[in-house]
């Protein structure tokens, strides 16, 4: 038995981290946020150069053919650096949808471009994953879509969309399709764009070569694990910043880190967050090798990491005192990243309900 | 315990309701953190005129001049909360400076400042914290040196809320550098227009500049604008902080929020089901409702103790910690209930309540830190409330 990362995985994660340190320092993040940019093209190109864009795409389509645990390790690094990169939809959810339910032609048309970082894919599945809000939902009839999808991921710069309809069917829609309107939804986290898609009788290709229902489930599970990993990375970055600040800031003639109250805040953050790492790893591993457990573990990873993330985001800010509430230290970028992750693809209450349903403890 | 209000009070309640029915529509929709708008000032004047705010402040200082009567104050709060109406301006001048001057100011200071402050015409900021002196406020370094009839001030303040919009500042400065740290501080009030003051906005995590850095270079302030005498500043500041902390845990605000969330959960749907019909969100709402009630009744208890001149002991010390936390959790519930909509911001479509919940969730965290952090509150509760030993001082290096 071996519950841990391989040497290759550790090296990969380190090299992603090093790259992000270089191409996506806080000043770059700040700039992308202030410009309300769809995403930072330079950051995404650098990551694509490491294979991050094609991690989950088969080698025959130009990808690396890696597993979800590898993707989770990448996601953790993206969260750690609050990188403005279209990872969750473009590199994880859309490729899984295409691999699971796309035709050979659809795969050939899009997977190589996604793998190389040449194309961006948006994913609109919020109504199925997080619950439909009033007025939202897309209806499909004879290869045409009508309706509204909210909270599409990686929406702003997308060349192609994967869209779930009201019955759980999946569709591929070109970014420039006639009758498609995209509206930017500004969220607290300006490093990742959300969009609203309005479909007015828009031409769409069904993804129907495989089981679309199963593919939808897979992509949502994978997306949840990625968001959990992102929060894990962002949370640990906040803890490290808090610890460093507590070691420098002096009040009452001593560093605040020498107050037991402050030490305990830091210790509690660490003690709560570190188990999430194991849960995220297990959920990612289960996704690839234990299909029966995959959905349950994805739900748990998402819910627990979100709850812990909220606690860490708040506590690390408190350790910084008034400075943490300013824009100066930029702590809020992590705070907001964690806040967004919590709600995307299902809030903790929602995914825990799904976990109960999966175990036969609650009716659907 | 007697919770019946009695006929006199029911008549008063009817009066308050009549006021709300007649004038409620004139209430400003939003109370910003900066300068009160004309609409807000008009509303404030109307409230003072009818004894609905500044109720017990003497007439000569621009108040309504009523006898203190906690039940009447309570009735006003209940009726305004129920109607979802703002009670009046709640800025630092009104909640901190006015009670401080009433307690410790000279007759001249009271006459000059209280009335226009109450009407929202003079806006104040609180110059306490400095870059190196937050929780350890008494270590502050901003210097005021005597020069004839004036003090000359040099130094820097930080996190000064509303300084960008303020006319006046109440400010702590060090007048006796040789004295022990708590004894060399004085409390000065002066105009923000005084030459030598520079205000630099400091953006917060909400994306707005709610507070500032304030720099003083040879700022000349008449000696008479000191409150309660040289070296008394720490004593005065503590009197003021007591008021700030009371305001920061205000249970009426939690009551208003609870009402707003309850409305939201009746309206908002997920997969066609109202959120109030989701057992989990509903349970969180009901659990918070109990805490709001507890804090509101707690507030009543404190009022009663104050009216009888009794020391409420630990009951008073917990208000800021519990009240701010409760407000934060109410905002957290609203965000969770809204799901992805709860992270929308600024001018995004589909915003609910103009993005107020997201803003509050962040701003509340600021309030948990400001005015004494949660940890400092816990130190106060344990040391002063529970009589536990103080933390040891560091060994002298
Ligand atoms: C929104 C907001 C508005 C503000 N408005 C004003 C204003 O108008 N005027 C003004 O003068 N100031 C204002 N402040 C400043 C505020 O009073 C200080 O930020 C606050 O007192 C904390 O000080 P600090 O930021 O220096 O934190 P620090 O004192 O550096 O604290 C950092 C961390 O150390 C902990 N800590 C410090 N000492 C101890 C101890 N002895 N035991 C245990 N833990 C400890 C704290 O709890 C905190 O977690 C505002 C602050 C905020 C956030």
Summarize the entry for a quick read.
The complex is a heterodimer of chains A (364) and B (397). Chain A has 364 residues and is of the alpha+beta class. Helices cover 56% and strands 14% of the residues of chain A.
> What proportion of the residues of chain B form beta strands (DSSP E)?
5-15%
Q: Main β-sheet of chain A: number of strands, strand sense, barrel status?
A: 4 strands, mixed
Task: Give the uncertain stretches of chain B in residue-range form.
Answer: none
Number of helices of chain B: 12
Number of strands of chain A: 10
Q: Quaternary state, please?
A: heterodimer
Order of helices and strands of chain B: HHHHHEEEEEEEHHEEHHHHH
- Strands of chain B, total number: 9
Q: What's the Cα radius of gyration of chain A?
A: 20 Å
Number of helices of chain A: 13
Q: Overview of this structure, please?
A:
- The complex is a heterodimer of chains A (364) and B (397).
- Helix content of chain A is 56%, strand content 14%.
- By secondary structure, chain A is α+β, with helices and mostly antiparallel strands.
- The longest helix of chain A has 37 residues, at 212-248.
- Chain A starts with 6 loop residues before the first helix and ends in a 6-residue tail after the last helix.
- By secondary structure, chain B is an alpha+beta fold.
- In chain B, the strands form three sheets. In chain B, strands 2-3-7-6 form a four-stranded antiparallel beta sheet, with no helix packed on it.
- In chain B, α7 packs parallel to α10 (319-338).
- The longest helix of chain B is centred in the C-terminal third of the chain and has 30 residues, at 279-308.
- Chain B is globular.
- The mean pLDDT of chain B is 92.
- At the A-B interface, β6, β9, α9, α10 and α11 of A face β8, α10, α11 and α12 of B.
- The structure holds flavin-adenine dinucleotide (FAD).
- Flavin-adenine dinucleotide sits between chains B (125-129, 134-135, 159-161, 211, 366, 369-373, 375-376, 379) and A (249, 251-252, 256, 259, 261-262, 318-319, 321-323, 325).
């Amino acid at each position: 038995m071996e519950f841990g990362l391989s040497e290759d995985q550790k090296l990969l994660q380190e090299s992603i981290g090093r790259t992000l340190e270089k191409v996506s320092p806080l000043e770059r993040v700040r700039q992308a946020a202030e410009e309300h940019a769809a995403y930072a093209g330079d950051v995404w190109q650098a990551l694509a150069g490491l294979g991050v864009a094609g991690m989950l795409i088969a080698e025959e389509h130009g990808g690396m053919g890696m597993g979800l645990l590898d993707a989770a390790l990448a996601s953790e690094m993206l969260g750690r650096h609050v990188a403005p990169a279209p990872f969750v939809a473009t590199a994880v959810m859309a490729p899984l949808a295409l691999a699971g339910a796309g035709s050979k032609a659809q795969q050939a048309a899009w997977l190589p471009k996604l793998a190389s970082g040449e194309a961006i894919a948006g994913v609109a599945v919020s109504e199925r994953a997080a619950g439909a809000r009033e007025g939202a939902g897309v209806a499909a009839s004879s290869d045409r879509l009508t309706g509204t999808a909210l909270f599409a991921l990686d929406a702003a710069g997308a060349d192609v969309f994967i869209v779930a309809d009201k019955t759980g069917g999946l569709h591929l829609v070109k970014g420039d399709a006639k009758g498609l309107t995209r509206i930017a939804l500004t969220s607290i986290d300006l490093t990742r764009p959300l969009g609203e898609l309005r479909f007015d009788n828009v031409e769409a290709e069904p993804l129907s070569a495989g089981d679309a229902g199963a593919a939808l489930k897979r992509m949502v599970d994978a997306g949840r694990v990625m968001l959990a990993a992102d929060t894990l990375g962002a949370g640990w970055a906040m803890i490290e910043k808090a610890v460093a600040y507590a070691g420098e800031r002096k009040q009452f003639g001593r560093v605040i880190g020498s107050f037991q109250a402050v030490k305990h805040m830091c210790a509690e953050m660490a003690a709560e967050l570190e188990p999430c790492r194991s849960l995220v790893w297990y959920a990612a591993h289960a996704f690839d090798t234990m299909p029966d457990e995959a959905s349950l573990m994805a739900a748990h990873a998402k819910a627990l990491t979100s709850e812990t993330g909220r606690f860490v985001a708040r506590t690390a800010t408190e350790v910084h005192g008034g400075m943490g509430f300013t824009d100066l230290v930029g702590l809020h970028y992590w705070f907001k990243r964690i806040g967004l992750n919590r709600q995307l693809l299902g809030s903790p209450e929602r995914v825990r309900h799904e976990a109960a349903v999966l175990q036969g403890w609650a009716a659907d | 315990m007697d919770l019946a209000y009695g006929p006199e009070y029911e008549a008063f309640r009817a009066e308050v309701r009549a006021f709300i029915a007649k004038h409620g529509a004139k209430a400003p929709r939003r109370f910003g953190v900066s300068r009160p708008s004309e609409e807000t000032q008009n509303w404030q004047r109307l409230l003072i005129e009818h004894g609905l705010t500044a109720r017990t402040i003497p007439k000569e200082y621009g108040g309504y001049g009523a006898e203190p009567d906690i039940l009447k104050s309570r009735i006003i709060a209940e009726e305004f909360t129920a109607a979802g109406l703002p009670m009046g301006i709640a800025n630092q001048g009104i909640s901190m400076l006015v009670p401080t001057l009433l307690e410790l100011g000279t007759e001249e200071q009271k006459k000059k400042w209280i009335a226009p402050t109450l009407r929202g015409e003079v806006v104040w900021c609180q110059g306490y914290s400095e870059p190196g002196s937050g929780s350890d406020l008494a270590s502050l370094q901003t210097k005021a040196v005597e020069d004839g009839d004036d003090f000359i001030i040099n130094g820097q303040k930080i996190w000064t809320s509303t300084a960008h919009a303020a006319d006046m500042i109440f400010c702590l400065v060090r007048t006796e550098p040789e004295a022990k740290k708590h004894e060399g501080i004085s409390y000065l009030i002066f105009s923000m227009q005084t030459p030598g003051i520079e205000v630099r906005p400091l953006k917060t995590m909400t994306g707005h500049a709610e507070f500032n850095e304030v720099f003083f270079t040879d700022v000349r302030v008449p000696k008479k604008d000191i409150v309660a005498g040289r070296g008394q500043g720490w004593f005065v500041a503590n009197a003021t902080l007591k008021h700030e902390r009371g305001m920061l845990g205000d249970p009426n605000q939690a009551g208003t929020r609870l009402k707003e969330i309850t409305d939201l959960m009746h309206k908002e749907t997920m997969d066609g089901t109202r959120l109030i019909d989701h057992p989990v969100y509903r349970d969180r709402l009901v659990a918070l409702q109990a805490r709001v009630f507890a804090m509101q009744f707690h507030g009543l208890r404190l009022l009663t103790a104050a009216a009888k001149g009794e020391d409420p002991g630990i009951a008073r010390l917990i208000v800021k910690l519990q009240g701010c936390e409760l407000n934060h959790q109410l905002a957290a519930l609203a965000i969770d209930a809204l799901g992805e909509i709860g992270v929308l911001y600024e001018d995004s479509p589909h915003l609910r309540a103009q993005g107020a919940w997201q803003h509050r969730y962040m701003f509340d965290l600021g309030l948990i830190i400001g005015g004494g952090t949660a940890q400092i509150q816990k130190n106060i509760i344990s040391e002063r409330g529970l009589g536990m030993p103080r933390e040891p001082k560091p060994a002298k290096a």
